[in-house]
Structures are given as structure tokens and as C-alpha cells.
Amino acid sequence: MTEVQTVTGPIDSGELGRTLVHEHVFVLGEEFRLNYQDDWDEDEKVEQAVRELSELESLGIDTIMDPTVLGLGRFIPRIQRIAERTSLNIVVATGLYTFNDLPPQFAYRGPGLMIDTEEPLTELFIRDLTKGIGDTGVRAAFLKCAIDDPGLTAGVERTMRAVGQASVETGAPITVHTHAGSESGLVAQRVLAEEGVDLARVIIGHAGDTTDVDYLCRLADAGSLLGLDRFGADAFLPFNERIDTLVELVRRGYTTSIVISHDASCFLDFVAVESRDRIGPKWNYRHIPEDVIPALLDAGVTEEDIDTILVANPHRHFAGARR
Fold this sequence. Notes:
With 323 residues, the protein is α/β, with parallel strands linked by helices. It has a single domain (3-319), classed as Alpha-Beta Barrel (TIM Barrel). The protein is built from eleven helices and 14 strands. The protein has an eight-stranded parallel beta sheet with strand order 3-5-6-9-10-11-12-13. The two termini are 16 Å apart.
């Protein structure tokens, strides 16, 4: 078995249980919060997160992977407070979230740049994975990067290659935020493969925002897991179409290529609280156990298929076993 780092310490990959592969606890800009988020109450937000994650655990979910990295407001001490009060496993990531440019801390430092050094991103990612994030003692267990509609910009490519290098160096798996409409998952696979990454260790995140099953099969045939991970985010793709796409993938024999999640959070400063229903009225942690699994069973997906999707596939993602 493989050791997986959680916020409260290492566990065996066989102890992950039913796993949602892409959930945030908080998504926020810490600099913005400190200066302008006048309604922020730290204790209240922690209590809310404990309630919502404990409720998720009571619905049969054992683990969430939280890909909140630089650019999304990762603050591990807050996550530690929450993890200490729930037995749900929280697995955190390292990496950097950008669709375009790099933050100024990295824009001028790196190979061939004004301050010509080895890639600092790779060094930081490896440190988070092997030594810990800051002085928290919490080690990241996977890597995260992004490529969206703007495509493979210089900043996106540099981040993605650093993520690939850190994965090859440490063996840590990768989640990539992608844009299904532009088929950017294929670009991510190409770049990561050029860095020597085993594509079987890669989740193509947000792949489930499309009904183009042929595109999804191309990603899966290259070895990667398909992140059908925005259930509840109806603004990107309605519920019935997400269900139909997953059922068709199972029918075609791709059950071992599917992982699922919501991409939900307890707090998201991208949109106002009162506007979240515009993304989806059921965009929350409960949607998969309460609505998605029953709909899949009604559509002919078996309990064994669901266990493969929720248990076996995330386990294999960390253990490095091929399908």
C-alpha cells in the first residue's frame, strides 16, 4: 500500500474510502479578505466548515481532496483547525492556479529570466510535498495546475512543467483544472508527458463539463482519470446531461477511468453568497450522496461501479497502479 498525507497525518491509501477528488474548503484571496472582507468571522466560518464536512461524512464520504493552492487562498492553519474536529480525511495540494500570467513573486525569477535561476516553482512544490507547507508540519499529497480557455500561455506552461517535474521527482499525482470546451485536457496531457509524467497519475479536472464522450474517451485512452467533478454546477452543464455522460462512459467500459466530485466549498469569494444559486441550487457537498448516486443507480449503474468510481479509482491515483 501507499502512504497518503492528510492534514492530520499520513494514512494508508487503502484507508481513503469513498473519496471526492475535487472539493475546496475555502476559496478566497487572503490579501483581499484581510483588507476588505468586512463580514468575515473566522470562528463562524470554521464552525460552518466543521458542520458541513461532518455532514458529508455522515452521508458516507470518507475523504476529500482539496486542490486549493497558491492563487486560491490556501491557508493550512485554518484547515488544521477544521480537520482536528472531524474524522473526514482532508488531503491538500501544492501547485499554482493561474489561467494566464505568473504572480510577480515568480515572473522575473527562473531559467533565462532577469534573475536567472533554476525553476523556483519546482523547488517550492517539492518542499511542500516532502518537508511540509510553511511551518505547519502538513505535507501536500498531490499537485495542481490549470489550463483554461486562454490556452497554453507562458505562465500556464511554466507552471504546468514545474508541476510535472515535481511529480516525476516525488511520485506525487496531479490534478489539472481544464476547460472542456477547448479540449485543453489534451494539451495538458501533452505537456505533462513531455516532462516524463505517467498520465495514469493525472486527473483531468472539469472534464465532466462536456457531453462530448469521444473527447473524454481520448483522454482516458491516454491513461488519465476523468474528473467528472462539478456535479451541482449546473451553469457549466445541467444535472441530467452530467448523469447521461457518466452513464454512457460506463456503458462504453470506462468505469475505471472516472472520478467524481462537486468542486464545491464552504466559502467562495469568487461570487457573492446570495448569487451562488445561479451556479446551481444544489452546488454543495451533499449533492453526490443525496442525488447523484441514486440517479446513477436508477440509470443502471451498479453499486460495484460506484465503489470503483469512489473508492478504487482514487486509491489507484495515489498508489500508482495502472488500470
